[in-house]
Amino acid sequence: MRVVSAHQMRELEERAIRDFGIPSLLLMENAALAVIQEVRQMLEDRHIQLSAGRATVFVGKGNNGGDGLAVARHLLILGMDITVYSFARAEEFKGDAALNYRLYQNTGGKLFTIEGEKQRRLVRISLAQADVIIDAIYGTGFRGALPSLIDEYVEEINRAQVPVVAVDIPSGVEADTGKVYRKAIMADATVTFGLPKLGHFLGVGPEYAGRVSVDPISIPERFLDDEKLTTSILTEDVCQYLPIRSLQGHKGTHGRGVLVAGSEGMTGAALLAGKAALRSGIGLLQMVVPRGLAEGIDLALTEATVWGAESEKALNGNAWPVIYERAEKAQALAIGPGLGQEPELLLVIEEVLRNLPLPVILDADALNVLAKEPGILGWRQGRGPLILTPHPGEMARLCGCTTEEVQANRLELAISKAVEWESIIVLKGAITIIAAPDGRAFLNPTGNPGLGTGGTGDVLTGSILAWLAQGVEPLAAACLGVYLHGKAADQLTGEFGLSGYTAGEVADQLPKARRSLENNH
Questions:
Q1: Is there a binding annotation on residue 53?
Q2: HSE-CB of 239 using CA atoms within 13 angstroms
Q3: CA–CA separation, 209 vs 178, rounded Å?
């Protein structure tokens, strides 16, 4: 599913109105009906009949407020007790919003205009009596900080122990960035229209939006699936990338991968990446590790073949001949988990970039070493696919900026660097971003805070390596690996909640995540 900016969504709506002849008022009515479906379900989940419920609706003067007034009118007709609080006077409403203001008044609904502090007590009484709150103050055109008066009432709404449904996007959240400057509505559910917005997934947007549902509001599917919209949200459709195994297949046909990893004190990273590759179905996993650690790694991961390079505690320049020999018959290579940062490793990475035409993943310490000379990425161009899997700190080192700057512009930075470096960028985080050299980007909705523990990034690297080795195209392999990694973690929350499970358990869960994906398709 595509994900859009506020400007892109406005253009889609204008095209639907202009080219398809859909009246703008109909779009507003359809939006209202979609919100009502959410309200109905929310009340039913709490065993409250819609006709017996009470709703408090907050509206602003724009089209978002018009949507809210249409919601209020329909709910009133369906028998709910409705109170609307408006942050604008009647004459400030324009167009379709003004019409819905009049229509709501004509139904005899209660409406109060908030002009200052004097309505605070009345609002508190309404919130205390409400079964649901509808937020329709600001929509996707909002930027910056909420006005101080609205700020104060938003605080009252957030303090109320009442479920909140946001119309399109919670008021106070920027639709393009997910930024919140002071306060914003903390919604339990958000009903958005046409397509999801970037702010539902970026920044702190997910924390404020709650559960997001999308309604097309009668905009034609061909408009919503326009190839000019280059950012998408990953869905279970990634199932199409899973390789189909022949009944005549064997370990040699299920992919050979090389994993260059490990150093003294960091063998766990190598083992976790290796386990994840095996759990993701790789046929043959070959690990290149320091010779002094090879025996221990071989005993710990008996399903892999382990090759020791001429070093005791950490790989150095002597690793290249071993890597090259193993890579000659492999379909993919990953380098980085627990690698250490010996200065000579930069020369090894140079050789990998220059001389290995197979798909290559650079992760963890490989990225930290690369950050000393990021210009050598130019040597890779045209020689084979390259995937970089940085967390925000590693991305900051690669780009020569701060982690805060990375986090403030995750999507734009990932896309620009993917294009500049002609590489696939997997920028890890609460919503991992996969950016392609052609400017496309994918946002991953799976995963949870439990992944914030040591070793989970190594598991992701091993999984992507396995899909590459099995012949999945590089961009698809990155998307598939990221989605299944997060899905495995989500499945573990059923037993452990949002913390306490380990990276090794995520790796062990990968086959079950893949299987559930297959079963759903």
A1: no
A2: 12
A3: 10
Count, residues in the chain: 521
Give the residue ranges of DSSP H helices in 391-438: 392-399, 403-408, 410-421
The top-level CATH class assigned to 234-517 is alpha beta
- The answer to whether the annotation marks 141 as part of a ligand binding site is yes
Q: Which two tokens stand for residue 225?
A: 């699936």
- Side-chain half-sphere CA neighbours of 127 within 13 A: 21
Read off the pTM: 0.93
Question: Is 16 one of the annotated binding-site residues?
Answer: no
Q: How many CA atoms lie within 13 A of 499 on its CB side?
A: 3
Task: Establish whether 64 is an annotated binding residue.
Answer: yes
Assigned token pair, 23: 């009246």
Residue 488 marked in a binding site: no
> Does 210 show up as a binding residue in the annotation?
no
Could you report the per-residue pLDDT of 291-339, keeping only the tens digit for each? 999 999 999 999 999 999 998 899 999 999 999 999 999 999 999 999 9
State residue 359's pLDDT score. Answer: 98
Q: Domain 4-228 - what CATH class?
A: alpha beta
Residue ranges, the chain, pLDDT below 50 = none
Q: Is 391 annotated as a binding residue?
A: yes
Domain with CATH 3.40.50.10260 in the chain: 4-228
What is the C-alpha separation between 413 and 310, in angstroms, rounded? 38
Residue 430 annotated as binding site: yes
Beta bridge partners of 433: 427, 443
pLDDT in tens, 146-168: 999 999 999 999 999 999 999 99
Q: What does each C-alpha distance from 366 to 197, 293, 350, 375, 445 come to in angstroms? A: 34, 19, 11, 14, 27
